[in-house]
Amino acid sequence: MVCPYTWDVPGGVMAHVRDLAEALIADGHHVSVLAPAADDAPLPYYVTSAGRAVPVPYNGSVARLAFGFLSAGRVRKWLREGRFDVLHVHEPAVPSVGLLAVWAARGPIVGTFHASYQRSRVVAVTAPVLQTALEKITGRIAVSEAARKTLVEHIGGDAVLIPNGVTVGRYAEAEPLPGWGPDGGVIGFLGRMDEPRKGLPVLLEAFTLLAPERPGLRLLVAGPGDAEEVLGKVPPALRDRVGVLGMVSEDDKARAYHSVDVFCAPNTHGESFGIVLAEAMAAGATVLASDIPAFRKVLGEGQAGALFTTGDAASLAREAAALLDAPERRAKLSDEARVAVRQYDWSTVARDVVRVYETVTATAAGGVQEERGGAVL
């Protein structure tokens, strides 16, 4: 498998690749992952570095990609030595190592499309070049209907729908973080704090509206970003009620989900699934999310979590207050979430991915081979 984004910084695609790899390994498959990473970065044994990533603005975010002669050389070496039965590239339209791998390989190739966007200048400009690579992909997967729509409208072709997965057991049980809830007054957030589309400014504004009337209300924030910058957006009198953890380990992430009464996903756009929702649901957290289409889908149109008007801090504040004041409703949503998330467990999702592998390899001979100038090397 190829991950286009750096392994050094947590993200939805990176987590998807990691968890799928580990689910396949647990089922007895041999898996190798190629991803951008610093050469001295601590990597799992199944990950090979494609070289240090470079930050590039992409899809309303900053993507850390690797694309150049060094990465191309590592891609070819990895393909040549791996002798893989199938090459699975995540986000093959992203200008990173995945695209290099598709260009360099011949044989069964699967592509998984994660992104959702209305338009992309990068994709529009590079479409003719991308098409020559994407035509080599023999099996296409979309992680959501939104991602499938993006593929159909902006790239062409279609895909089988296989959702993001979550290792439900990893989040089901965990001790709360010291000094935190759930105690009836904790709202939580997990995501990149400095990325506007993740919606933290909306949540901070909502917290500022709610906190004066609720002396016990606290906010727990986790994820990459500048803690001082986050606190600077909160009135001084309220700052001691905001806990900013920064980037957390997988264990502490699970504990954070169990430390809140309401987990909030205030994302504004650009989400095709919402892996944090699935993780929070697996932990049995009461979820409050913006009503973007991807989140509505994961939450069953509000059955497994509450929704508020996207980008509207006042709407978020009203819904959060209603949840905090209704412990029975929170308990019901928690129960619904634990049931709903089972369909996304990797034990189910990985089997569906393997069926795609079996389909693309059924008529192929010789597995994945390196290709240069039309010749197999």
Global morphology: elongated
Number of domain modules:
2
Gyration radius, in Å: 21 Å
Relevant CATH superfamily of the largest domain: Glycogen Phosphorylase B
CATH topology of the largest domain: Rossmann fold
User: How much beta, percentage-wise?
Assistant: 15-25%
CATH class membership of the largest domain: Alpha Beta
| Contiguous runs where pLDDT drops below 50 for at least 5 residues | none
CATH architecture of the largest domain: 3-Layer(aba) Sandwich
User: Structural class given helices, strands, pairing?
Assistant: alpha/beta
Summarize the model shown.
By secondary structure, this protein is an alpha/beta fold. The protein is built from 14 helices and 17 strands.
Structure description:
- GO terms for molecular function: hexosyltransferase activity.
- Residues 10-168 form the Glycosyltransferase subfamily 4-like N-terminal domain.
- This protein is an alpha/beta fold and 377 residues long.
- It has 2 domains: 12-165 and 346-376, Glycogen Phosphorylase B (Rossmann fold, 3-Layer(aba) Sandwich); 168-343, Glycogen Phosphorylase B (Rossmann fold, 3-Layer(aba) Sandwich), CATH 3.40.50.
- 39% of the residues lie in helices and 17% in strands.
- It has helices spanning 12-26, 69-82, 97-104, 121-134, 145-155, 168-172, 200-210, 227-231, 250-257, 275-282, 293-298, 313-324, 327-340, 346-361; strands at residues 33-35, 47-49, 54-58, 61-65, 87-90, 105-106, 109-113, 139-142, 160-161, 186-190, 218-222, 242-244, 262-265, 287-290, 306-308, 369-372, 375-376.
- It has a 6-stranded parallel β-sheet, with helices on both faces.
- Helix 1 (12-26) crosses helix 14 (346-361), helix 2 (69-82) crosses helix 3 (97-104) and helix 7 crosses helix 12.
- The chain is elongated, with a radius of gyration of 21 Å.
- The two termini are 20 Å apart.
- The mean pLDDT is 91.
